[in-house]
Amino acid sequence: MQPALADPSVLGADGVLGRMDGRALQAMARATDTGLAGAVGAGLFRFETEVFLDLVHRFDTAAELVGEVDGWRWQKLTPEARQALARSSPPFEVHERCLLRRLRASEPHPISRAERRD
Q1: For residue 61, which of 86, 33, 32 has the smallest C-alpha distance?
Q2: Helical H runs in 1-118?
Q3: pTM of the model
């Protein structure tokens, strides 16, 4: 599973409050895509299916949201979203659009006994 939207939305009772800064997460996702494409191109795996879904994180207070997302490695609250949180009412949510892919390992190529390294 990986992000499919650059900057997840931060919502409160008043609607959309802002967005997360997801640049680091998107860079990591692009690197993952490159690696997957290489493995598929080499015949190691094949894509079977993919589905988009929304991962929703819910919080009862702004402090709870800030405390949680401040610990996230790949995304950060923007200053504008922090300010809007302080002025808004709960409940609060962070919506992340995600891509879930299923890959299947390709059938192993037959290797003669002479080539096998047991």
Answers
A1: 86
A2: 23-41, 62-69, 79-87
A3: 0.75
Distances (CA, A) of 93 to 18, 60, 65: 11, 9, 8
pLDDT in tens, 64-88: 999 999 998 888 999 999 999 999 9
Residue type, position 65, single letter: L
Measured between alpha carbons, how far apart are the two ends of the chain, in Å? Answer: 35
Residue 42 sits at the vertex; the CA angle it makes with 33 and 115, to the nearest 5 degrees, is: 140
The amino acid at residue 92 is F
Cα–Cα nearest to 100, from 61, 58, 31, 48? 48
Eight-state DSSP code of residue 109:
P
Q: Alpha-carbon torsion 67, 12, 85, 6, what sign?
A: positive
